[in-house]
Backbone:
């Protein structure tokens, strides 16, 4: 699926990979987010934190009506307030999509896949 944006010069088509990279970057820039996680850890056989090139495995983009819904799967830091982290991720993802790609997400759903303790 791709998101299509109509401009005065023509149509722009954004692929899921582009949107997932922006969403993953926005999510991981928040304090308390250790990284992105795979949405299907068992099927993908990935239990570790995803790197930038694999953000598409941790983000789902859906077309809903006239808008776009985004699901982000994250790993959070132990001892942080999960509700605040999730809210901050939602705000940051919406902002980055609007500023970088020129469209707003109707929904940003955040799923916490695990909690990690970072060793010093």
Residues:
């Amino acid at each position: 699926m791709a998101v299509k944006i109509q401009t005065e010069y023509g149509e722009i088509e954004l692929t899921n990979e582009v949107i997932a990279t922006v969403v993953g970057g926005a999510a991981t820039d928040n304090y308390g987010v250790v990284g992105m996680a795979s949405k299907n850890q068992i099927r993908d056989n990935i239990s570790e934190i995803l790197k930038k090139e694999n953000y598409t495995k941790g983000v789902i983009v859906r077309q809903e009506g006239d808008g776009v819904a985004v699901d982000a799967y994250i790993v959070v830091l132990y001892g942080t307030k999960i509700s605040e982290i999730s809210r901050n991720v939602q705000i940051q993802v919406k902002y980055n999509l609007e500023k970088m790609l020129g469209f707003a997400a109707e929904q940003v759903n955040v799923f916490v896949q695990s909690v990690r303790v970072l060793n010093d």
Notes: The radius of gyration is 15 Å. The beta strands are 2-7, 10-15, 33-36, 59-64, 67-77, 107-116. The first strand starts at residue 2 and ends at 7.
